[in-house]
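Thread: magnesium ion complex, take 2
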Amino acid sequence: MRVFGVTGWKNNGKTGLMERLIAEITSRGFTVSTTKHAHHRFDIDKEGKDSYRHRVAGAKQVLLSSSQRWALLDELRGEEEPYLAEHLSRLDPVDLVLVEGFKAARHPKIEVHRESAAREPLIALNDPTIRAVATDTAAPEGLGPDVLVFDLDDTAAIADFVLEQVGLVTEPKPDFPPLRDDCFALPDGVEWTPVDTALATLRDRLKCVVRSETVPVSAACGRIAAQDILAPRDNPPTANSAVDGYGFANPTAQEAYRLTLVDGRAAAGAPYQSVVPAGHAVRILTGAALPEGVDSVVMQEDVQLVGNELRFSGPLKPCANARKAGEDVRKGSVIVVEGEEITPQAIALLSATGCDEVEVRARLRVGVLSTGDELVPAGEAATPTQTYDANRPMLLELAKAWGFEPVDLGHVPDDRAALKTALDQGAESADVIFTSGGASAGDEDHVSALLSAQGTLHHWRIALKPGRPLALAMWGGVPVFGLPGNPVAAFVCALIFARPALGVLAGAPWRLPLAFKVPADFTKKKKAGRREYLRGRLNSDGTVSAFESEGSGRISGLHWANGLIEVEEDRTQISEGELVRFLPFAGFGI
Ligand code: AMP
Ligand code: MG
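Output below.
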């Protein structure tokens, strides 16, 4: 368990710092528990309460439980106070336990020091477990060279320090191991980020970055609702007929009906204007409002008309063939929820209930930049050593297919200054940036070098094939997805990581791709420990084939496939007929 302490003499602000650190560290997505050393007379139980009465009566332990929390009280009754380690072993697993007090225990600590409250010399002067001092004055004198000093109010810096000390965050490392021939091999001793961890981090750290705007329903398809949309009226707005037939009231179990037909009729949009008396029926057409005096309809196929007498056989249920007002949607009910992507079906519902405008999110602007000295835009003359830029057009089209606004940031050579200028421009004109190429660890990999030197690189090595070199960073406040250069890897990373992440930036909830299990019509061996995505094609017999090559430059395989086959980390083999997870491209909105 990772443990870090806050210590200090009385009234120096230990609890205040604890409180600020708990809030800061939990807001960064870590789970935190705490332990506090208190005065021997402390009591969380109140005199007279039932639990107190149990204890005073002699119980050794009292367990109190409610739907909100529970507590276990242990009365030592003369036993020794347990050591901190024993207490820690009782806690459920969390990322970090913050300990207040317990000066004598040997865990690493920060000491709080306030000039106004200082009566005793700093504990840090004589205690090597104190790694830092948080103070409201200038750096105290006499501290060892390894003891850092923080401003007591700089919670973010203290939290960074604590997390770094316990190993929860590591500084981005500038020295990447060189690329190997087998670029997908898992080197020994290197920590790989599992795909799910990378995804959870994106899910937890990202939030909507676009404002909302009002658009007519006719322009809302494909947009993301910025708030819950309520039905302005019932659907259907009044009770009406579900069939062409004859309307009357109060059907009973009787076998033979004889009703007198009134003059006139009720049609959709042309209601019958007067009351239908008891014992009478009125001609009514599908969609017509039920006139007063009508609650049921008999189908025209089931009746006989003799003069103006209508004859048919029962029994008919009350309200037969009638649609109730609001039976589909009630006025004021939520018909589209915040974050929902508005589909043609939602447009039907919005229109049917009388919505004319909706509040939606502005389209997320997705900047796409390709990098590499070898690249030439399609259509221009290229030498055999040059590569046509395939990623930029592909990524721009993906952004468009996902309902975002593609922003073409062009192409830059492998030049750090040019890349920096392009990223600066991208941060101005887009809400999120895709780069492709240069995200690996080679000499020309300026994207990863620049992002780690000047941005905040979140992830580097993801246990994934294809697409291991993926750099996720912030640039000028804008998230950057440093996608691999190989088009297949760029595509897979865009689908698996960027699509759900961009959805969150655009105001949608985190989305999981549509997936189902189908039998494989191929065999495959794989290394454990990394997840693989194969180009797959669902066959008409319900099996799935894998593309003949796993080469990540084989763009033809992307075109051949109609989905991805997801092979889990722990799987080392697929035999023919075994079930594999298939993620159809249609589930990715393409
Ligand atoms: P890199 O990640 O820059 O090392 O590139 C890996 C491979 O992908 C190289 O063969 C590049 O030429 C190729 N590549 C990089 N960017 C693109 C692109 N935009 N279109 C097509 N291929 C590319
Ligand atoms: Mg390159």
